[in-house]
Amino acid sequence: MTDDANRLRVAIVGASGYTGAELVRLLVCHPAARVVALTADRKAGNTLDAVFPHLAGAGGEGALPPLVAVDNVDWEGIDIAFFGLPHGASQPVIAALPPQVKAIDLSPDFRFADPAVYSEWYGLPHQSPALQAEAVYGLTELMRDRVKAARIIACPGCYPTSSLLPLIPLVEAGLIEADEVIIDAKSGVSGAGRAAKEGSLYAEVAEGIHAYGVASHRHAPEIEQGLSLAAGRAIKVNFTPHLMPMNRGILSSIYVRLAKGASADDLRATLATRYQGEPFVKVLAAGTVPATRHVRGSNQCRIGVFADRLPGRAILLSVIDNLVKGASGQAVQNMNVVCGLPETMGLAQAPIFP
Amino acid sequence: MTDDANRLRVAIVGASGYTGAELVRLLVCHPAARVVALTADRKAGNTLDAVFPHLAGAGGEGALPPLVAVDNVDWEGIDIAFFGLPHGASQPVIAALPPQVKAIDLSPDFRFADPAVYSEWYGLPHQSPALQAEAVYGLTELMRDRVKAARIIACPGCYPTSSLLPLIPLVEAGLIEADEVIIDAKSGVSGAGRAAKEGSLYAEVAEGIHAYGVASHRHAPEIEQGLSLAAGRAIKVNFTPHLMPMNRGILSSIYVRLAKGASADDLRATLATRYQGEPFVKVLAAGTVPATRHVRGSNQCRIGVFADRLPGRAILLSVIDNLVKGASGQAVQNMNVVCGLPETMGLAQAPIFP
Amino acid sequence: MTDDANRLRVAIVGASGYTGAELVRLLVCHPAARVVALTADRKAGNTLDAVFPHLAGAGGEGALPPLVAVDNVDWEGIDIAFFGLPHGASQPVIAALPPQVKAIDLSPDFRFADPAVYSEWYGLPHQSPALQAEAVYGLTELMRDRVKAARIIACPGCYPTSSLLPLIPLVEAGLIEADEVIIDAKSGVSGAGRAAKEGSLYAEVAEGIHAYGVASHRHAPEIEQGLSLAAGRAIKVNFTPHLMPMNRGILSSIYVRLAKGASADDLRATLATRYQGEPFVKVLAAGTVPATRHVRGSNQCRIGVFADRLPGRAILLSVIDNLVKGASGQAVQNMNVVCGLPETMGLAQAPIFP
Amino acid sequence: MTDDANRLRVAIVGASGYTGAELVRLLVCHPAARVVALTADRKAGNTLDAVFPHLAGAGGEGALPPLVAVDNVDWEGIDIAFFGLPHGASQPVIAALPPQVKAIDLSPDFRFADPAVYSEWYGLPHQSPALQAEAVYGLTELMRDRVKAARIIACPGCYPTSSLLPLIPLVEAGLIEADEVIIDAKSGVSGAGRAAKEGSLYAEVAEGIHAYGVASHRHAPEIEQGLSLAAGRAIKVNFTPHLMPMNRGILSSIYVRLAKGASADDLRATLATRYQGEPFVKVLAAGTVPATRHVRGSNQCRIGVFADRLPGRAILLSVIDNLVKGASGQAVQNMNVVCGLPETMGLAQAPIFP
């Protein structure tokens, strides 16, 4: 446990959404960090527990500062700032930060190396293309060295995290055909955020499932960026997300064509080797199926690999908690890396089941 | 409304499972049928509402007979018998029926034209291979003429129903590559039946999702039988079912490679034409996504067709209520057909939402 | 089945909410009614299935009219109008109806005999106090004779329906102390309507329960009105509603003090006698516990009566589907009564489980 | 963080149930404890993650011992043993422990000061009545001094924990009438354990609610024991549990009659004073309603106090996570107390929401 004076001073910008709350949940138990600023423009003036009653008393009575408008943050006192804002909102704030503040952005604002792709999919011009060049895509296990040296870290989207962790090593190893990847993803509802929308109502989600954003979801180009980099050429994917009745969790069922001569066992072995020793990525034994409920509340990604009945094909099953490894947990993991802390610090909680 | 004396006299063999209860729910409102026998060997002697309280008073007080052992059914008084037994149990009972009784079997016992396939996947020798030749696979919309003349109707499994309705017309039309079909299916829990198994407990199912029977589920050969017949050659499929927290419903997300020159619009048009005028199969307009909750409690199948981001590919989305169109509803539909009644009789209820 | 020309011509005002959709679900199967007008001011111009996809094709293709603004309804062609509007909105529309239209209001606008009570609890002056005198409180089983002769029927709230059916006969019989009734009610989410509110989001409702409106819910005065009338003096109640994760259903657990000499068995016998022959109210045998899932989708109310461990007290358990017996089903039941049709017409569906 | 050699050596007897898994989840993060033995007679020989995949790797790879039969535990190496066995099974094992082992029992085996009460409600003779006299009822906040000195700690049931924390201080202060307490409790499904029972199936629990054990649940006498002790005379209560669709959580809605002159504000003030400084019990501000989802995964109990519409009465609302404060968390809290550790050690996690 670090002395309070030596702890990292952390700001959470956009603390009134689910990812903001999840950052708080994780950081109040982090032994080397201290949350010193919380912002939420429309809720400024409130305590956090007025917005998120479950966080009342978190970290000890009085441990958390009140919500303020982002303009009222004293950035001189901040070492690390997390951004949980809607797309388009992070870029100007991060551009105006004093240089000693490291920014960890959970929005898509800095995820795309090519600002034109961002602009095409999010319908906005990029407001800080110069900074974009310096931003690092924070898929920690696969970008650790670049994260270490970064000042701006763009945390991957939840779906891309669950897809790219199994896919990138296989594409890099040439074991699968990168041009024919089919990703059928199933997500819990918290991924849609806390905004009051008819489509997120209990009665519209419970006891049913449906696809959405078919062939048009914004996480497709993000996945394609990752695979294109790995393949060394432009790749497109089938990415079909589904909304289902659970609070947390993503299961990506990924259907791949094997490269000539490769087998499902080869894929599993390659992934097992690649993630050997990684504390948060587990490649399961043959025959073991991952389940979202087995990673709930934790920063884990679990991956299963299966042979297909169709010859020359394999199935990858990948699960994460979208709010942890898919958002706030990976963000804290990146903080640990960029600050030189042990990577698992504050992230060692076991999953919570049932 | 038919005079009571002229109504079809119906037996439900295996009335203590969810499909049995669903048959009762539908048949008590059927104007040309009357349930005169209910069997449940282990529950014999009970009234049905002791097993299924929701059916207390269904059809009017005293409308339903008590549960008896199957050996105690007086078959002379029966016109139609539904079988909701576990696999292996229907064959001997159906083989011993007097000739005037038409049998509608919801189990897999008569689904496979080749008894060896049944035997391989269900681990039992077929006990009535002679009768198998006469059994008709009751995917009503695609087998109507054969159903009309049948004495033994094998109702399709729930997953095959949701998959074959969109796929068979496309394979027959040569619009998709039958050898590369990938079916990612999501099912509610009632498909697993009412047996008390750890894996079906609320705490093991709620708030999560996982694949099961990967590359080994018994509905794969059934789907393959349907596609092989349509293609005129032996076909294998990727069929990957997932268990998710809902009572009723199946969504099959089907990823197909287009035949040369074909487009997603062609697929949609072909299906729309094929199912034009069908009361229970709806092909949705371009851009409309089907949802399981929109068919809950009804005998409908709804199908959406989408272009893929991957060139030369398309996505089919198909939803049913597994207990209705996937089991008891299609069984009643088959009864209507085989008995010369209007096909929608007793099946006109609108879906129940939310 | 009535000839189309002879069917009642029905308007549903406010068809874009859950109760409106439920009216449509029930009425498309009603053999003596035909829906000829559907209104939804903000959605005018749409077809109903654009708002409620589950109703696509309901009643047969083309059976349902498009949504129009309420001002565009041709009232001359209407026999019966159902109102599913927010409070305050029905009063002026009903006041302006031509005299041949019977109004069945699902809102609270005409539920209170004393306009001052309405005004106090709903924060609005009553806009049609003259009409109020002629409105009948449509708790059908207990008000059947008055409903028969009514022109304006105020359908009870969902919570009051589940509470008053067991309580009123017991208060009238003097078997319980009317001044000490404690009603702990648990409701599904559809009771909160389809408005996009943070508190109704899946993630805010699933996997949890909480009380709301403690000692201040608007259904308290409505229950009190019913009990006061039965007791012949002003009665107050404890009414504590809870929001829980289910789409449909209300369970009211009611804790009562017995009148001197009365027993739980007396209560059960009195209710059984009172509701003898009623098609929609079932008093369960001693020891049988009602469950909301056993009445889902049906117009039933089921009531269990238990002795308490505390001497001199008893427990009443009452379940309904809030959208059916608690709203649209009871509304159709009232239509049947006021129009001289068989009371169960169009309402005979068995509950849907699971 | 304690040196490994100095950590408490902990055994979990009955590790294959939900409370066993929850103990592991909490203890792998406990800085002063080390799990050195796990028993599960029927699963002996397996690793824990074969039974609970979510715990794979918990505490670090290889941190957890394999499951063994209870007879194979080497008790000499154990400081603390937790018991998560069915009722009747703990008594003989605890009776045979060497004297240095402290026993923390999560079953009802040692909860009743009077063995005859245990015997009456659990249908078994007490097998260790002599030890019973020495056992301490581990409702930590109210029994801390006795827990400190105990060798056998009987952890309270989940329902009694949620009820007694608000009630005992009020009965002791004479602010409520102890003879008229009505407890309407709502519980998640994990309280029923992991046994495969029809009544715990997803399809039998989801989307519904029902009361069970009405006037006959085994937690009634346990609550009565606590209140009787507080009141100084024999007390009976109305305790009516309900099963609802959630994994974790209990909400007890408690209806009380105020002592003459007392008000709801007095009750709240008394509870606030009583629990001032307690890390795990929060008395909420007037008007704030507790929700089970706000304590999920944490060891908290939150209590709200409301005036009733009925004069002279008040409403207490109390929430816990049944697996944490209602079972394994309170057990760890008791371990901390009895071992002289800081009471919050290993229990500081914030609740997990959504």
Automatic annotation (TrEMBL), chains A, B, C, D:
GO biological process, one term: L-arginine biosynthetic process
Lineage top rank: taxon: Bacteria
GO cellular component terms attached to this protein's record: cytoplasm
Record EC number: 1.2.1.38
The keyword Nucleus belongs to this UniProt entry's keyword annotation: no
Cited Gene3D superfamilies: Dihydrodipicolinate Reductase, domain 2, NAD(P)-binding Rossmann-like Domain
Reactions catalysed: N-acetyl-L-glutamate 5-semialdehyde + phosphate + NADP(+) = N-acetyl-L-glutamyl 5-phosphate + NADPH + H(+)
Class of enzymatic activity (EC top level): oxidoreductase
InterPro entries, sorted: AGPR, AGPR_AS, AGPR_dimerisation_dom, AGPR_type-1, NAD(P)-bd_dom_sf, Semialdehyde_DH_NAD-bd
Active site (UniProt): 158
Keyword tags: Amino-acid biosynthesis, Arginine biosynthesis, Cytoplasm, NADP, Oxidoreductase
Protein's pathway: Amino-acid biosynthesis; L-arginine biosynthesis; N(2)-acetyl-L-ornithine from L-glutamate: step 3/4
Family annotation (PANTHER family): N-ACETYL-GAMMA-GLUTAMYL-PHOSPHATE REDUCTASE, CHLOROPLASTIC-RELATED, N-ACETYL-GAMMA-GLUTAMYL-PHOSPHATE REDUCTASE, CHLOROPLASTIC-RELATED-RELATED
Function: Catalyzes the NADPH-dependent reduction of N-acetyl-5-glutamyl phosphate to yield N-acetyl-L-glutamate 5-semialdehyde.
Protein family according to the UniProt entry: Belongs to the NAGSA dehydrogenase family. Type 1 subfamily.
Protein name, UniProt field: N-acetyl-gamma-glutamyl-phosphate reductase
Organism: Defluviicoccus vanus
